[in-house]
Amino acid sequence: MLLRAKNNLEGIDDVCYGLTPGKKYAPLGIEGASYRVLSDFREPALYRSELFEVLDSSYQEVWQTRVDASGRLFVYPP
């Protein structure tokens, strides 16, 4: 899976802190409607999916998938 931070991140308050507009990110996992990525500060951080353009939506079959009681999807490597 591969994401790119949208170019129009300015003015979206602090939710995009640690992202560079136009930069590509490989998510560490998916939590509901958010992606966990390694921020520009080299720290794992959770960001809303609307901050990204999905360049490649495929993820490896070895990633573990679960849905919690509220119906949120969680996808992470083992």
Question: What structural keywords apply?
Answer:
single chain, 78 residues, mainly beta, 5-stranded antiparallel β-sheet, 3-stranded antiparallel β-sheet, 8 strands, 0% helix
Write the layout of secondary structure elements.
Blueprint: E1 2-5, E2 24-25, E3 29-31, E4 34-38, E5 44-48, E6 52-56, E7 64-67, E8 73-76
Antiparallel strand pairs: 1-2, 1-6, 3-4, 3-8, 4-5, 7-8
Secondary structure: number of strands: 8
* Number of H- or I-type helical stretches: 0
The percent range for helix content is: under 10%
Spatial gap, N to C terminus: 15 Å
Q: Could you list the spans in which at least 5 consecutive residues all have pLDDT below 50?
A: none
Proportion in β-strands = 35-45%
* Neighbour order of strands in the largest sheet: 5-4-3-8-7
Please tell me what the overall shape is: globular
Largest sheet: 5 strands, antiparallel
Given the helix and strand composition, which structural class is it? mainly beta
Give, in order, the helices and strands: EEEEEEEE
* Rg, nearest Å: 13 Å
What's the overall average pLDDT, rounded? Answer: 87
